[in-house]
């Protein structure tokens, strides 16, 4: 409420009536709440639908009604217990392991590269940024087949080695995605670094003592994207994992929608989608609070 | 703001050649190593690390020498052969029945596939290029050791070098692994694929192919009536650009608008609203896309719902009519993309110095004026690189198109559908049909288009010219 008082004070100075300002604010509030509600429903509807579908007793893909009519918990049970056709549990575990590694590696890589590009000046810097920019313009799908051949030459495509292969594939190139982080670091005042270096910090110390804490919101973003990559990608996984005991969840779920499975697996597909979304959603809520933290007050005076 | 831009312009004119972050070359260059180097330094061009060893940089010298020896061993064992095959025997060998001198059949010689030869050949070229670069590193290090020995009396010890990696040259230690990853898993595969564009590696020659020069490029550009022709290429290219434009800017501005509505001082439950919109991120993209694909089919949930309400008589042609399909993918991409935009933009919006707004409010600026004169310049400044990467990302947006519409509607006999982007076309050609060469050519053309668009915009953007403008 203190905000309102301060602002109505400004309004006075600007020569406007408090009343007028107040009315406009209320109208703005109402409009924005209506907008947010309508859009929120649009955004949530498909998710709610998937959620309800996962409890659908009628497991085929063709439904008479938009929302299911009879509910059961059976789909989840079947998903994890009937492992002879598709072992969803092990797919889930495999993807989770990959995601954890990729998350950590990609955050480290992006922070390293962004810090170097934002804070340090060296001869290879501009060429590096230009090369990365140029590389980003090559369609990534183009490399899928080639990456498979390279991994095969490294003997990483048989058995459980595909886990290592996928970790490598998903995290190796993440350093190229530093632009957003660099843009953020560019907004951090240089005087912070200078002050720390006057106090005897090395560049590495400036990095993890000064820059890292300030970049937390962006790190959250990077961690989420890094963690999501293995869950979302299926093109790369499809090229690398050739047998079903190597599949990640993305491939498993995709498989359930193929012609030979869809008639029996549609509800279990929805259940699988819900199960996959849960760790991501939890992670997201835990990390959500970092968004609030703003930069104001990092440099005083 | 006005003063800043004036300042920028003045700076631009003055420092056209030598920018603010210009780094003067160190005195130890390869050229100087040969001009001013002593015997040890010059001999280092043959025996790596010799100069370092002579200046008592034992560990460094041994490391240089070890890498040279490793390279020589590699070349003698496999590298030279791989290079030779790459240029002269790309065809490989077919498996032939062999007989011993007395006529007893032997196990057939292992078949050598052209793809393997191509991969090992390209890798050998790649390693050689890396080695040449390493040679320049070696020469510079050699002269550096000599130079420092002469000027300061002693060359830095290994410990000094390690300490330097933590401070002055921290960029070397920090960039090493990310760069290595990019080299092996981005650049090497790309070179490999590009080399395929010059071969006859297609569905007719799946295991044994040869170099064909620019024939594939000609096929894609000309109108000879093949499944891959110039007319189809142009129409796919045009749709790709339209798609990328709408997908990028609609997402950006609508997402930013929503983020600002949520960020309003008087909007309550900011966390709740952000949570609502980020829910869709938690659902894997391909799940929601596949679900929407089934929902929007002629017999899907949406059509049945609308029909049961009596709003429409026949099913809406979501993926069967070209225009409908194109609008549908753009709209659904909004659903997919806006939460990501909100997520990224929120942090930056909160980063805008609050005093700018306070000052503007004191001067009587209204909401729109604040938006145009504070928010937009700041956002554009910070996010231009992001916008460009999003644009290129959308040109290469495989998931949305492939999973949602699959490129449909596809005219009979055409190799690309009406919503196919260059990238999905490439995928269909390579993975589905095995025409790796035309796929690679399309990939190269995609790259050229993107490079022209992106480099032009990026080079003229504020955040490239003046990285410290908002500090």
From TrEMBL, chain A:
Domain ABC transmembrane type-1 span(s) in chain numbering: 92-287
Record carries keyword Membrane: yes
Pfam families: BPD_transp_1
Keyword terms: Cell membrane, Membrane, Sugar transport, Transmembrane, Transmembrane helix, Transport
Keyword Transferase: no
Localization per Swiss-Prot or TrEMBL: Cell membrane
GO MF assignments: ABC-type maltose transporter activity
PANTHER family tied to this protein: MALTOSE TRANSPORT SYSTEM PERMEASE-RELATED (PTHR32243), MALTOSE_MALTODEXTRIN TRANSPORT SYSTEM PERMEASE PROTEIN MALG (PTHR32243:SF50)
Name under which the protein is recorded: Sugar ABC transporter permease
Source organism of this protein record: Pseudoscardovia suis
UniProtKB/TrEMBL annotation, chain B:
A Pfam family recorded for this sequence: BPD_transp_1
Gene Ontology biological process terms, A to Z: maltodextrin transmembrane transport
GO CC annotation: maltose transport complex
Record flagged with keyword Membrane: yes
Alphabetical UniProt keywords: Cell membrane, Membrane, Sugar transport, Transmembrane, Transmembrane helix, Transport
Domain of life: Bacteria
The name this protein goes by in its record: Maltose/maltodextrin transport system permease protein
Source organism per UniProt: Pseudoscardovia suis
């Amino acid at each position: 409420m203190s905000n309102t008082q301060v602002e109505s004070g400004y309004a006075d100075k600007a020569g406007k009536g408090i009343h007028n300002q107040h009315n406009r604010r209320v109208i703005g509030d109402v409009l924005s709440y209506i907008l947010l509600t309508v859009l929120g429903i649009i955004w949530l509807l498909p998710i709610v639908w998937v959620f309800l579908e996962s409890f659908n007793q009628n497991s085929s893909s063709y439904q008479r009604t938009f929302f299911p009519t009879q509910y059961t918990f059976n789909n989840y049970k079947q998903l994890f217990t009937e492992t002879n056709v598709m072992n969803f549990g092990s797919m889930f575990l495999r993807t989770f392991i990959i995601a954890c590694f990729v998350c950590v590696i990609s955050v480290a890589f992006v922070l390293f590269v962004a810090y170097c590009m934002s804070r340090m000046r060296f001869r290879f810097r501009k060429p590096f940024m230009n090369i990365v920019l140029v590389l980003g313009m090559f369609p990534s799908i183009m490399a899928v087949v080639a990456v498979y051949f390279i991994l095969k030459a490294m003997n990483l495509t048989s058995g459980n080695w595909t886990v290592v292969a996928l970790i490598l594939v998903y995290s190796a190139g993440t350093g190229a995605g530093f632009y957003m982080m660099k843009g953020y670091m560019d907004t951090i005042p240089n005087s912070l670094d200078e002050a720390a270096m006057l106090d005897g910090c090395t560049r590495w110390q400036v990095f993890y003592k000064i820059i890292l804490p300030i970049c937390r919101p962006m790190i959250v973003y990077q961690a989420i994207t890094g963690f999501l990559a293995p869950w979302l990608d299926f093109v790369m996984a499809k090229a690398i994992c050739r047998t079903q005991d190597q599949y990640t969840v993305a491939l498993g779920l995709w498989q359930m929608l193929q012609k030979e499975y869809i008639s029996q697996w549609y509800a279990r597909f929805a259940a699988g989608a819900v199960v996959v979304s849960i760790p991501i959603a939890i992670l997201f809520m835990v990390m959500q609070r970092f968004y609030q933290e703003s930069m104001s007050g990092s440099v005083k005076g | 703001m006005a003063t800043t831009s004036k300042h920028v312009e003045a700076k631009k004119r003055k420092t056209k050649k030598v920018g603010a972050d210009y780094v003067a070359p160190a005195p130890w260059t390869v050229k100087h190593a040969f001009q001013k180097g002593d015997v040890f330094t010059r001999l280092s061009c043959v025996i790596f690390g010799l100069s370092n060893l002579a200046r008592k940089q034992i560990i460094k010298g041994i490391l240089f020498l070890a890498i040279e020896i490793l390279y020589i061993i590699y070349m003698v064992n496999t590298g030279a052969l791989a290079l030779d095959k790459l240029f002269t025997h790309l065809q490989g060998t077919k498996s032939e029945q062999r007989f011993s001198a007395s006529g007893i059949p032997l196990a057939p010689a292992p078949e050598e596939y052209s793809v393997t030869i191509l991969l090992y050949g390209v890798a050998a070229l790649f390693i050689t290029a890396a080695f040449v670069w390493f040679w320049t590193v070696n020469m510079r290090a050699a002269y550096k050791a000599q130079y420092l020995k002469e000027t300061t009396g002693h060359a830095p010890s290994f410990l000094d070098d390690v300490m330097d990696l933590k401070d002055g040259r921290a960029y070397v230690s920090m960039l090493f692994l990310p760069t290595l990853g990019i080299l092996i898993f981005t650049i090497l595969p790309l070179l490999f694929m590009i080399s395929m564009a010059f071969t006859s590696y297609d569905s007719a020659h799946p295991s044994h192919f040869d170099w064909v020069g620019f024939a594939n490029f000609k096929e894609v550009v000309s109108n000879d009536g093949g499944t891959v022709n110039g007319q189809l290429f142009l129409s796919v290219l045009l749709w790709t650009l339209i798609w990328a434009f709408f997908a990028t800017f609609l997402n950006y501005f609508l997402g930013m608008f929503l983020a600002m509505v949520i960020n309003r001082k008087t909007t309550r439950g900011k966390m709740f609203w952000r949570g609502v919109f980020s829910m869709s991120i938690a659902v894997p993209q391909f799940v929601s896309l596949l679900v929407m694909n089934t929902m929007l089919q002629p017999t899907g949930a949406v059509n049945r719902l609308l029909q049961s309400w009596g709003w429409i008589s026949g099913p809406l042609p979501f993926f069967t009519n070209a225009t409908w399909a194109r609008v549908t993918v753009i709209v659904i991409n909004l659903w997919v993309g806006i939460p990501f935009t909100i997520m990224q933009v929120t942090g930056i919006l909160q980063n805008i110095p609050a005093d700018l707004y306070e000052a503007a409010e004191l001067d009587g600026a209204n909401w729109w004026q604040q938006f145009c004169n504070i928010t937009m310049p700041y956002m554009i400044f910070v996010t231009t690189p992001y916008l460009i990467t999003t644009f290129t990302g959308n040109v290469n947006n495989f998931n949305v198109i492939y999973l949602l519409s699959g490129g449909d509607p596809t005219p009979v006999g055409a190799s690309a559908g009406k919503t196919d982007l260059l990238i999905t076309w490439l995928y269909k050609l390579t993975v589905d049909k095995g025409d790796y060469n035309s796929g690679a050519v399309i990939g190269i053309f995609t790259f050229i288009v993107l490079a022209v668009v992106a480099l032009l915009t990026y080079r003229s953007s504020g955040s490239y010219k003046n990285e410290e403008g908002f500090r």
